[in-house]
Amino acid sequence: MEHEEIKALLPLAALDRLDQAEQRMLEEHLGGCDECTAELREFRETAASLAFGLDPSATEERVWHRIEARLNPVRLAPSRLGDRQAREGSFARGTTLWRPAALVMTGVAAAASIYAVVMNSQLNRAVQEKSEVLASLTDEIGRLHTQLSSAQGQVATFQRVLDERLRLEKVLTQPDLRLTKLAPLKAAPPDASAIVAVSAANHAAMIQARGLPAPPAGKTYELWWITKESGPVAAGLFGAQEGASVVVQVSPPPAGEHVVATAVTLEPTGGVSKPTGAIYLKGT
Questions:
Q1: End residue of a domain, out of 92, 111, 126
Q2: Does 221 have pLDDT greater than 70?
Q3: Residue 162 domain-assigned?
Q4: Spatial distance between the Cα atoms of 176 and 167, rounded to a whole number of angstroms
């Protein structure tokens, strides 16, 4: 057989589907042809990769049967013309025509199948990678959203504090300013204190408190004007944070009444009309 004829047998040789005469001629040829030896090795590696790629759990025998079944229409084409003796006789010349074409088609089919398997594997890998990237981006967006919400809360807090400071400054610059310092009583920490500023001309009042502990759940601090005429009059509610000062605008004393003292008590959330809780701060 010529070199090209032997080369056309290589795909079937990779599947161990040559008869004895073909196998013997192939082995003799391979002894002196590095090109065909390398190509046969590649065909066998390709066939094995294709087979096991299609069914990783298949046994070797089942794998080769599956490959042969896929190639069966091409391989069995000569059977229509009779048995091997008929092919070796009157059909011998025709063999040189259909066998190379059939083997080329076999190689093309194997290559196409391998390409499909490789592309499918690459596609699955790409989808997995994109899914991982998407999950990572989703987590990052969630984290950034949390940070944004926290930053917006901080900005709102800073804005509120700034507004309170500006209102306090406005009150403190009035010519009719009155200041009252509140000292701690038994219920408050010894370093707690507050200053109450009142401007009758602007009908405004502010309290700046520091050193008070954060009120427990369901409780809040309430400021009181204690007047000669009405006794305790609710002035406003405020909270507190450990180690921080708080500035809050409150209602000014009732017009026409004489304030004799100012106090801060701990009351239920929402405040009460008359003091019920312990007195934390008091000033005259």
A1: 126
A2: yes
A3: no
A4: 15
Number of domains in the chain: 2
Q: Residue 209 — φ and ψ, nearest 5°?
A: -120, 145
4 Cβ contact partners less than 8 Å away, ≥ 6 residues apart: 100
Query: CB–CB of 171/206 below 8 Å?
Result: yes
Domain extent, residue 109, equals 3-126
Spatial separation of the C-alpha atoms in residues 55 and 10, rounded to whole Å:
24
Helices 3-14 and 20-30: angle between axes, nearest 10 degrees? 110
The answer on 122 and 7 residing in a single domain is yes
Strand-pair category, 279-283 with 231-238? unpaired
C-alpha span between 284 and 60 (Å, rounded): 100
pTM, 2 dp: 0.45
d(CA 207, CA 179): 10
Residues 183-216: pLDDT tens digits?
999 999 999 999 999 988 888 898 999 999 999 9
User: Does 205 or 41 have the greater pLDDT score?
Assistant: 205
Q: CB-based contacts of 220: which residues, under 8 Å, 6+ apart?
A: 237, 238, 239, 266, 267, 268, 269, 270, 271
In terms of Cα–Cα distance, which of 258, 257, 254 is closest to 234?
254
244-253 b/e (C-beta count within 10 Å ≥ 16 → b): eebbbbbebb
Q: Which two tokens stand for residue 46?
A: 């390709």
On whether residue 163 sits in a domain, the answer given is no
Does residue 185 sit in the same domain as residue 88? no
Torsion, Cα of 154, 158, 164, 169 (10° steps): 170
**9 shares its domain with 113:** yes
C-alpha distances (whole Å) from 251 to each of 71, 89, 162, 272 are 95, 120, 19, 15
Residue 255 lies in a domain: yes
Total count of residues recorded for the chain: 284
